[in-house]
Design a protein that fits this description.
The chain is of the alpha/beta class. It folds into two domains: 79 residues, 2-Layer Sandwich (Nucleotidyltransferase, domain 5), CATH 3.30.420; 122 residues, 2-Layer Sandwich (Nucleotidyltransferase, domain 5), CATH 3.30.420.40. It is 37% helix and 25% strand. Strands 6-9-8-7-10-11 form a six-stranded mixed beta sheet. Strands 3-2-1-4-5 form a five-stranded mixed beta sheet. Helix 3 packs across helix 7 and helix 4 packs across helix 5. The longest helix is centred in the C-terminal third of the chain and has 28 residues. 34% of the residues are buried.
Length: 254
């Protein structure tokens, strides 16, 4: 069994895998603390079973806390995903050890979904929107990091005197791109900018590399973009978690 933990800036996602099947899935805010009820459910599920724990973290200050939680409740030493361990992809970047663990896992999962069949581009719509490029040879070429959709809205609210913050329900596409009031104008600007950025970046990557890519979406706003874009996309909601699972299997044989 493999417990995969994705520690992000806004949320923490956990999944318990038996082979490649998820038998437990939990998401909670990163600042809420680990719910002990979830640990108890996990303990009941893994009783009398060996477990390996993989963590992809982009919040280093939480790593020690989570290492203690895993040691105390599961009696396991977690493996923190990085460019230093064995991976199914080859990191063709200048400083592989600085590459974010979430991006490594997204790229690895995307590659393994279509191994040696298609070039893949994984796009994760989280606090940041990240793009990761992997050829069907397994070569990871790098990627792009841009502000996430909600992050863009927060920036407008934070760095202006009068622009309000959007509510979660405001992140939708309207029939008209032209807003008739301030909220509509902000909403239109944020979501249509994200869509235009996404489509422009995908086409720019394909033009630069002279290759077509299978585009895989993940993250909280994947469905929003998937439903509006003219680019053919596939949603894989557990992309990072699947990547952790694949990488852990490669490293410990579970």
């Amino acid at each position: 069994m493999i417990l995969a933990i994705d520690i992000g800036n806004s949320f923490i996602h956990t999944a318990l895998y038996v082979s490649d099947r998820i038998i437990f899935l939990k998401k909670f805010p990163a600042d809420s603390g680990f719910p002990l009820s979830s640990i108890k459910q996990l303990i009941r599920k893994i009783e009398n079973n060996n477990i390996s724990v993989g963590i992809a973290s982009v919040v280093p200050e939480l790593n020690i806390k989570w290492e203690k939680i895993i040691n105390q409740h599961l009696g396991a030493a977690p493996v923190f995903i990085s460019g230093k361990i064995t991976l199914p992809i080859s990191l063709k970047v200048s400083k592989p050890n600085t590459l974010g663990a979430d991006r490594i896992c997204s790229a690895a999962a995307a590659y393994l979904y279509y191994k040696q069949k298609q070039n893949v581009l994984s796009v994760d719509f989280g606090t940041a929107t990240t793009y990761d490029v992997v050829l069907k040879s397994g070569d990871y070429l790098g990627g792009i990091i841009s502000p996430g959709i909600e992050t863009s809205a927060k920036a407008l609210n934070t760095f202006t005197s009068k622009l309000p913050m959007l509510k979660s329900s405001d992140f939708t596409f309207s029939r008209s791109i032209i807003g008739k009031n301030t909220i509509e104008a902000i909403k239109s600007g944020v979501v249509f900018s994200a869509l235009a950025s996404f489509e422009g970046i995908v086409r720019g990557i394909e033009k630069e590399l002279k290759r077509k890519f299978k585009v895989i979406l993940a993250g909280g706003f994947a469905g929003l973009i998937h439903g509006e874009t003219s680019i053919k996309t596939v949603i894989q909601p557990n992309l990072v978690l699947d990547g952790i699972n694949y990488i852990m299997k490669l490293n410990n044989g579970n």
